[in-house]
Each structure stands twice: as C-alpha cells, then as structure tokens.
Amino acid sequence: MSNFSQLKDLVLSLEADFEKFYDKGNSAAGTRVRKGMQELKNMAQTIRTEVQNAKNTAADSAPKAAPAAKKAAPAAKKAAPAKKK
C-alpha cells in the first residue's frame, strides 16, 4: 500500500503548481507540473508492473482447474426447398 500513499502524496504536492500555472499563468509552475506528471507516469508504470507480476505469481501457484468441456456447435440447418408454382 506504500505505492498508493506515494502516488497520493505526489498528486497532492502538484496541486499548488497546477493552480499557479492555470490560474496565474506562471510558466515556471508549468515546468514543475510537467516534471511531476512525468514522475507520475513512471510511478504508474512501476505499479502496473508490480501488479502484473503479483497476478502472474498468484496464478502460477494456484491449483489449475480442469478445462470445461466444450459444447459441440449446432448442426447447420438445410434451407427449405423452393416452392414450385
């Protein structure tokens, strides 16, 4: 859960710079926002990788169930013969 806390802290730390950039037009704050968003992107990728690895590890160690029997496909119906006039 540490990653989640770090993620929240990062977003909250950017709040003031977002306000300065969007409300006051401070371009230096925009640079800090861009830097923070890059850190957020990197952190998100790290978390995604950790979650995927945890899922794969759990799936590998879990007992595998027997595959379900497949149902046979229904037979194709023949078209009715055309009526003669």
From TrEMBL:
It holds the Pfam family Hc1. Might have a role analogous to that of eukaryotic histone proteins. Signal peptide: none annotated. Residues 62-79 have a biased composition (Low complexity). GO terms for molecular function: DNA binding; structural constituent of chromatin. InterPro entries: Hc1 (IPR010886). Belongs to the histone H1/H5 family. HCT subfamily. Residues 54-85 are annotated as: Disordered. This is Histone H1-like protein Hc1.
